[in-house]
Amino acid sequence: MLSIGVDIGGSTVRAALVENGQVVRTTRIALEQREVDAVAAVTAQQLSAIQAPPNAALGVAIAGMVRDNVVANAPNLGWRNADFAGALQRLVGRPVRLVNDLSAAAWGERCAGAAQGARNSVTVFVGTGVGSALIVDDRLVSGATGVAGEFGHIKLVADGGRPCGCGQQGCLEAYAGGANLIRWMGDEGLSGTPADLEREALAGHAGARQLHTFVGEALGLAIANVVTLLNPQVVVLGGGVLLRCPALVQHIRRVVGNRTASVAAEAVRVEIATLGDDSGLVGAALLAA
Ligand SMILES: [Zn+2]
């Protein structure tokens, strides 16, 4: 069955025609304006560009909190309580299913990627920020107010800690999220990206090694605790930082293996997202279908 997936990030819109979990045709365009109507207009143009069939279901993944098909909060776009689905629906004349980007990615990996066939999975992406989505008994967990799985804002310390974009301190994302990690590297006299940090750490630079070890332990321990709690078959790792830092992923694997309660540890495998950048597109299309 053909369906349409759209992925709206902070700076680009991608659209794809998806059939049986495979991307058939895809487009990408940079976002010049971030107003709701402008983004809806650009998205509608992309649907024409991929020659979307009139009766194909449409799913849209968005980096933000989605509640009742409304964008409750999308910090990258500056949207709060934005009825993007309504705006797009008026332009394209078909129902729009809106979903959080990590939920879409987790569902894409569940249907056509690294978590295929798993009824229980934990998907963790580390890029600019840190996000996760949980699938329990084959259902995406949303929670009482739609914000379950905010893995980046698990606290590492009881008081204080490094400042986080959420307004609190000591969050996992404040240390391990790409943007905050680069800031932290700067404070320690290190420059470059997380991939540079990994290279320096492997080359034996003591300061780089300390940060790299801390981030691997923090992510590994947090994931191990989630695995102990939920007993998933698969942990799917993705996002720009993890995809470019294989030694960090190795460290996470080790910590998850050593620090997960033993019965849950025997059941779980830790995999890299196999759909790469397409997991959100594919998942949004499949959720809509
Ligand atoms: Zn936070």
Give your account of this protein's structure.
The protein has 289 residues and is an alpha/beta fold. Helix content is 41%, strand content 25%. It has eleven helices and 13 strands. The strands form three sheets. A five-stranded mixed β-sheet has the order 3-2-1-4-8. A five-stranded mixed β-sheet has the order 11-10-9-12-13, sandwiched between helices. The longest helix is centred in the last third of the chain and has 25 residues, at 206-230. Zinc ion (ZN) binds next to loops.
What secondary-structure arrangement, pairings included, does this model have?
Layout: E1 2-8, E2 12-19, E3 22-30, H1 36-49, E4 57-62, E5 65-67, E6 70-74, E7 79-82, H2 84-92, E8 96-100, H3 101-112, E9 121-126, E10 130-136, E11 139-140, H4 172-176, H5 178-187, H6 194-202, H7 206-230, E12 234-238, H8 240-244, H9 246-259, H10 262-267, E13 269-272, H11 279-288
Parallel strand pairs: 1-4, 4-8, 9-12, 12-13
Antiparallel strand pairs: 1-2, 2-3, 5-6, 6-7, 9-10, 10-11
Helix pairs in contact: 1-2, 3-11, 6-7, 7-9
Q: What's this, in brief?
A:
This protein has eleven helices and 13 strands. The chain is an alpha/beta fold.
- What are the secondary-structure elements, in order, as H or E? EEEHEEEEHEHEEEHHHHEHHHEH
Low-confidence sequence ranges: none
Using DSSP, what is the number of strands?
A: 13
Which strand order spans the largest sheet, edge to edge or round the barrel? 3-2-1-4-8
Distance between the termini: 8 Å
Q: If helices are DSSP runs of H or I spanning 4 or more residues, what is the number of helices?
A: 11
Average residue-wise pLDDT: 95
Largest sheet: 5 strands, mixed
Question: Roughly how many Å is the radius of gyration?
Answer: 19 Å
Helix content: 40-55%
Give the overall shape. Answer: globular
List the bound ligands: zinc ion
